[in-house]
Amino acid sequence: MQPSILIGFAIGFGTLALTVLLESGGQVSAVLAFFNLPALLIILGGLTGILLIAFPPSQIREIVIALRKAFGGFRDIDQLEMSVQLLALAQRSRQEGILALESVLPEVADDWLRRSLQRVVDGLDRQMVQDILAVEMEEYSRKVRTGARILTSLGGFSPTLGIIGTVMGLVHMLASLQEADKIGGAIAVAFMATFWGITIANLVLLPLAERVRFRDNELLATRQAMVEGVLSIQAGEPVRIIEEKLMLFMDPDLQREFTERQVASGGGRQGAG
Q: Cα(59)–Cα(57) distance, rounded to whole angstroms?
């Protein structure tokens, strides 16, 4: 799991717990009172039911992809290493011809990049290679976007489930008005459902959906850099031009590191053409 997620959850929920402690004069029991089982049950159980009702099984499976992506279950593509490798392949292609890449393809770690280069070596024309890559990128991104959309939808339902739980609690309280000394506590318990509905939506579901979208955009930018590199190698463009294209997809810090790496290896702007 990405450390930033754990830190974010700790800060978010820790702030809530600290606020309750301060308002209650430091009573830990006041914090524990917020962990109301019926309230949590109606939120978590309700969200599970909504998930099964609103989305077909095929899309529910895709939420696993989104969550694994959000929590860092997939190995991130090292954009720097990928760019360095593409330049080395471009240099070899310029010197020995495109077919010379076939012997080094097993050394390409990323499966998607390796398959893309294999199509170039196999002699597919540029437009066909470009079309295949575009379809593959869109299909993968669609699955991730579906997961993000499901998380966003659940984030919208969660507060409503909380209100339902609160109404149920208030109805139960009104049925017991003869016990006046318990009314205050009953009202507090009733509003726990609304609290957890809003909290789960705004501290868990919606932030995770945003993280999934961000990481999807990040991956697509790196994949797009790969596409440019592969098509440029196929077109036989100078290594210097390919280097400039790849740098367009990098942030300033990565550009600087990439340039230093190329200069240290004797390639990049000082060398290959």
A: 5
Contacts of 251 (CB under 8 A, 6+ apart): none
In the chain, % helix, strand, coil (3-state, to 5) comes to 85, 0, 15
Q: Is 6 helix (H, G, I), strand (E, B) or coil?
A: helix
Q: What is the 3-state secondary structure (H, E, C) of 103-172?
A: HHHHHCCCHHHHHHHHHHHCCCCHHHHHHHHHHHHHHHHHHHHHHHHHHHHHHHHHHHHHHHHHHHHHHH
Residue type at position 254: L
Contact 41, 110 (CB under 8 A): no
Locate the domains of the chain by residue range.
1-35
Amino acid (one-letter) located at 52: L
| Residue 115: Cβ within 10 Å count | 14
Taking only the tens place, the pLDDT of each residue in 111-134 is 888 888 999 998 888 889 889 988
pTM for the whole thing?
A: 0.76
* H helical segments located in 33-78: 37-54, 57-70
